[in-house]
Amino acid sequence: MRSLLEGLTTAAFFLFNPWSIAMANDNPYAERSATVLPITLEMDRGAADALARRSLSDLQAIYAQLQKEADQSEELISDGGVACACDVAHSNLLIVIGFSINKLDGEGRYQDWMEDDSLGLLADYRQLVAACGEDAQSPAFSGITDEMIEKL
Q1: Which of 112, 139, 121, 147 minimizes the C-alpha distance to 37?
Q2: Distance between CA atoms of residues 50 and 48, nearest Å
C-alpha cells in the first residue's frame, strides 16, 4: 500500500510539475530531490499530525519509516549514488521524532536537553526541506512547528 501511495504521490508531483522531469535529467541532485520530496512531505504531514495529537503509536510508525528511508539513503551513497537535502532532512527528523517518543513513552529516557536539540534539528530540517524543494523546483515547507515539540 505504501509503495502504491508513494508512486501516486510521485506521479502527481510530476504531473503538476512537468518542468521537473526535464530539469531532473540534467542534475542528479535535482533528480533525487524530485523523487524523494513527495515521500518527505508525506512523512512531514504524518509527523505533524502525530505530534499535534501526541500519538505515540503514530510517532513510532513514522520513526520506523524514517529509519528505513535513512538506511536506503546510506545504501545509495555507499553504492556511489548522490544524496539530496531530503535525505539529510530524514536523518534530522529521525532524531527529533526519537526524542519525542522518549518524552511520550514515559520510560524515563527523556532529558531536558533533548528539547533544545530537537528545536535546533527541526530548524535545520525545515531548511533542508525547503532546499530539497528548490532542487526539485517545487516549493516545499514543513508543517512541524516548534510549538508541537514544546507542548509534548
Answers
A1: 139
A2: 6
